[in-house]
Amino acid sequence: MHKAVTFINRRAKFSLTRSQRLLMSIFCSLSVGLTHAQPMGAPSLGPASADELSPAVERKLGEAIMVEARRDPDFVSDPAINQYLNDMAHHLVAFAPHGGPELDVFGVRDPVVNAFAMPGGFIGVNTGLIVSTKSEAELAGVLAHETAHVVQRHMARGLTQQKQSNAIMLASMAAAILAALAHAGGNAAAGVALFGQAAALDQQLGFSREAEQEADRIGFDMLSQAGYDPTGMVRMFAGMTNAATLNESVRGGVFASTHPLSMQRMTDMQNRARLMKPVPNQSSANYWYVRAKARVIQSRDVKTALLVTEQFQEEARVSDGSNRSAALFGLSLLAFQNKNYPAAEQYLKSAQVNVPASPFLSAQAIDIDLAQGNTNHALVTAQAAIKKWPEQVAILQRLVKVYEVSHKDHELVELLNQYIQRWPDQVPSLYQSLGNAQERMGLRIESRENIATYYRLTGALVAAMNQLQEARKMSNDFYEQSQLDARVQKIREQMTQERRMLERFKAG
């Protein structure tokens, strides 16, 4: 096991980002403590085939990792950014050959230019990658390439190759997840460490030349069929590769070094682009707002924030349309971050001039109103926004917050039930908000049932069982108790199934 840790550290030293190096070190320290749970020697994974890691098992691995990954401070929980990335990925994968797998894309607060795939269709996109793009087609080009790796199951193939290092890596992940399950599923350190380990898989495995070419071809086809300018992929990859070759700058980042673009690959993409019908290189307003948000999110210190402020001010001066509006929006976000609400409001008003209404701008207006105590105006804005953009999670969450601040629990419960019917599993936080509202209303059993659903959907199965068991103790109704018992038993069966799926990766 110590040899495996040394190997992982040596491979990761020059390729991992700052946050990933930190998480990897946590994983390595944790691994020493899990020695008794680890296999002694390389596990037997069978033939070098993706079939050895079935889509169901691969998805379960990814879900287990993501349970605690969402608690990591670098995980971007901003619903607007993540919904934008997921909408883009789902639009791209709709044009994948033979259909695409279930995808879940999330942002990572890190200035390094990188994107990485984890087991089960989970894809991380660094804020640095978003910020480094100059157009929506460039961002879509990188995401299309990474999505193609997922579509072709290159991760599963890499993990199940007959290589001792990959076998140990997979066994380590499985054993750590099993250890967390054995200790009531509440080992946050284990989960965060697994996130770092998984984020490094894309870089440590190193896809073959054939896999990279396959991802280029399929990603390029998805990109063009989805309506994006196909030359965006060519521009982005060429820019990253040149930057990495010249000075290993932040713009070159990890992605360029782990997806090396050979002359043959570059020429092939250029030739494909020439054969395609030209597509206007236009970027949506949402792209510019997401890019501005990413720049603010990764501004960790005063020096960086001042630099970004100057950049936004210059862009607002020389740009027009959505680009100018996004720069002013960014200035509003920075002012809000510094609790300078009057300045934030003024920048926002300027951002709204001569551009179409946007959920990003409306969400910022609601935040400013709430921060300044203008609850009634926030309510009016939020109700109008949810009517205009009913599918925007960021707007819904702000309306929920306004109802909570206004003590409108009955209206809130009605709203949440409507959206839970629409999105039964997609937005777990709705159940948490519903449970909290019911608790305030004195509906203690219903509250715990909905909080249990929230925990179940986020993978905290033991916490979900505890909530249901509490609800059972509060009930005097035999039928209701039986239903709660059945739900507890279903969760126990799910945990048993997960353990069995993971146990297969341990040496016999």
Automatic annotation (TrEMBL):
GO: which molecular function terms?
metal ion binding; metalloendopeptidase activity
Of the GO CC terms on this record, one is: membrane
- The signal peptide here is 1-37
Q: Which residues form the Peptidase M48 domain?
A: 82-272
Task: Identify the cofactor(s).
Answer: Zn(2+)
* The keyword Signal belongs to this UniProt entry's keyword annotation: yes
Cross-referenced Pfam families: Peptidase_M48
Q: Which InterPro entries match?
A: Mito/Outer_Membr_Metalloprot, Peptidase_M48, TPR-like_helical_dom_sf
Q: Which GO BP terms apply?
A: proteolysis involved in protein catabolic process
Sorted alphabetically, the keyword list is: Hydrolase, Metal-binding, Metalloprotease, Protease, Signal, Zinc
| UniProt-recorded name of the protein | Putative Zn-dependent protease
Question: What organism is this sequence from?
Answer: Jezberella montanilacus
